[in-house]
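Entry 14. Structure prediction run on the chain below.
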Amino acid sequence: MNYDKLIENAINARSFAYVPYSKFQVGAAVLTEDDKIYTGCNIENASYGATNCAERTAIFKAVSEGHKVIKAIAIIGDLSTHTNPCGICRQVISEFAQSGDIPIILIKNKEDFIIKTLDEMLPGSFTKKDLEL
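Output returned:
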């Protein structure tokens, strides 16, 4: 599958990051089940616990618009390496992922990115299925 548009949206979202403390900009873009793209950036707060990651911002925007299934997510942070999502973001991705093989695209730039799956990044994840009786 071609992820060029998703990657471009993540790169653009990075520029909106509000990072006065860490100076570490992150952008993300999620692809929903009906092929809509939602973007997000990280948003810091002086009370660090109130900070929100780019991945969760993008996912929460999609969910708030009625999209509860994501098919892929693209993430860009440090331009010298492939930035991985934090543990909380991995768990949130698993909540809305279509499946464990959802592509997680880790971007350095438009030409340099790698694709991992959720199962690779969060093996044995706790999901909605674990709550079914």
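The chain has one domain: 4-119.
Filed with the rest of this week's runs.
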